[in-house]
Amino acid sequence: MFVESFQVTSPNLTYGPDSITSNYTYTGTEIQVENGTAVAVPYNRTFSFVTQTKVPKTGLMLVGWGGNNGATVTGGMIANKEGITWRTKNGVMQANYYGSIVMSSTVCVGQFKGEDVYVPMNSMLPMVHPNDLVVDGWDINSSDLAEAMRRSKVFDYDLQRQLESHMAKLKPKPSIYYPDFIAANQEDRANHLIPGNDKWEHLEHIRRDIRDFKEKNGLERVIVLWTANTERFAEIIEGVNDTAENLIKSIKSSHPEVSPSTVFAVASIMEGC
Length: 273
Known about the structure:
The protein contains seven helices and eleven strands. The protein has a four-stranded parallel beta sheet with strand order 10-9-4-11, covered by helices on one side. It has a three-stranded antiparallel beta sheet with strand order 1-2-3, with no helix packed on it. It has helices at 68-82, 101-104, 145-152, 157-167, 199-216, 244-252, 260-270; strands at residues 13-15, 19-34, 37-52, 58-63, 85-88, 91-94, 106-112, 115-120, 134-139, 173-174, 221-226. Helix content is 28%, strand content 28%. It is of the alpha/beta class.
């Protein structure tokens, strides 16, 4: 049985005007050793979880927005929002969110009269709909998203044709490029960079980008995702990146083992993303 909505009735859960509060009691056993004897002592620990029910206006910023992943996910969201259909050799296709765990999956929540009951995963808690996301991002290449879409060769031609006018308006912000961390084949496309070699200034530039994006679009929350080229492993070095304090010092001194993803991550954390 498939049911569209989901609600819980329990003494441990309260639906408020702005939030859902649930209490969970964890039962465990602690071992104490007394005079050479192991003594099992049960204990209970209660945790309270609060989930906001108002879905905030949310922005999504993609690092590597002009790459295959960034262009494809953006084009897919536009196609769904605009209700685009396109022709292929197999017939007419309709945009959908098949393949998205959150948008397409169901969860079995129990049985009703002996029959399993399934609800959409996205109905279990308040969630932002992908069509409502405001999208922006960074890339080391200056091409707009229409060119990135053509270059990636993921979408069928007829879909590309219909997305062209939407994607051409979208252009990534300049990004950071530390050649030691990514494949050498990215060098030729690195023509859209935040200037200089000062990694702390790079971090501050990214923070300004996030703030400007948030303010310009009236956003309450911003999510930053990495969709750029895979980096090499960054060594964990004592005194360099083994603690938050040392990492900040290392970014300020532009230490060579500070990667682009680290700079973006720290900037995102500082901006409350």
